[in-house]
Amino acid sequence: MKTGEYTLPGFRHDWAAMNLSLFASAFHQQHGAELAQHGLAFAPTANPFASLFPDGKWLGVSSDAALTTARIRGFSDTDAAAWTQLTESFPADAEAILGVLGSPMSLRALGTLVGKTWWRRGTAGSLDLARFLTMSSRAWLDQTFESDHVKATLAAWGMHLDFAPDIAGGAVFPYLEGMAGQAFGMVLGQGGADTITSAMVAMIEARGGSVQCGTSVSSIEQVAGRAIGITLSDGTVVRAEKAVIANLSPRGLMKLTGGTGDPRHERAMKTFQHAPGTMMIHLAMDSLPNWPAAELKRFAYVHLAPSMDQMARTYAQAMAGQLPEEPVIVCGQPTVVDPSRAPAGKHVLWLQVRMAPGQIKGMQRAPLMPETGRMPQNPLRNAHWISWSVTHPAPVKTSSENTWLPRICSRRTIPTSWGAIRSVAAIICTSIS
């Protein structure tokens, strides 16, 4: 979680993650009061997300269930009835789904979970849950709804976790975000997403710990198959009393550990396939985008993802190393929720451009925004932007083998070696001018 003034002084942009709703975890329930003492603060919104489509129609999910259902009814009475049924069953279904997602990965824990689920839901209900957990977004959405607009609105959430519409297991996140967005809204960090980072660092230091940044780790020390500490590049050894937590790529972890001695595990680590990258465009704005519906200015996220077919094409092209003919765009409007992130009357815009291949082998056609451009009123055109910066995946190898490092560029310093990425950023941002 990182926030900075990447465009102009006074404009605070979340470098990557903006939505902090998933931080409402058992850890926060236990330590929330202490974190608040160290400055953690949230900015809630009752209008978490919406989608805008080329035909000028839009659909948004708000914490007012009756309002959200009425919007869905505008597309399909059948879908409104299906949404109502999902809403009514959400508390019980969410408990079962979150139980699976939060279970320790051990045979004993999983066995206990299976037993509890079968006792509560019966054989048929347990099998339905297992089937749902393995379904793709498209399979579940086609089975549940009839409107393509409703399907695309929810399917866009799968793309946040790199679950394109046809990837198995992708139905869970669109379901949870749709239902949880209506039930609880969304929370951002007050002043920026780094409120979590700052509060946790302060909490660690208050307990006698320390946080070192910019320090290279040369190896993870092991004894009898257990990680016992780390060795820094200067030879310093730091012992771990309980565990070593390594937020690395699989290949990076292999290099630091020197291997695990398990051929099957090591082969999986070496051949791990990464999902496509993401390009971030941060904008300092005089005003919000010119959405065709004024109500869209109330939402934290506005997705520009016209259809499940388009999302599937974009993902497949990026995985093949092709610059997609059309990106999926997540337009974040944090200052709608938290005006403190910009000077009075100004705004910041957070554009997440998905999917970007880490290494571009070619492109489908000139990098344009065809679907967005076909909208009756392009919401990004003629908006008043002041400055922008770009963060994109750059293929830079490091000693830790974490191959995807962010590169932040101003509007005039996007590296020419990334000409295709430069073209995409320039075209997207030019359409705002």
From TrEMBL:
Gene3D superfamilies named among the record's database cross-references: 3.90.660.50, FAD/NAD(P)-binding domain (3.50.50.60)
InterPro entries linked to this entry: FAD/NAD-bd_sf
SUPFAM superfamilies tied to this protein: FAD/NAD(P)-binding domain
UniProt source species: Sulfitobacter porphyrae
Protein known as: Phytoene desaturase family protein
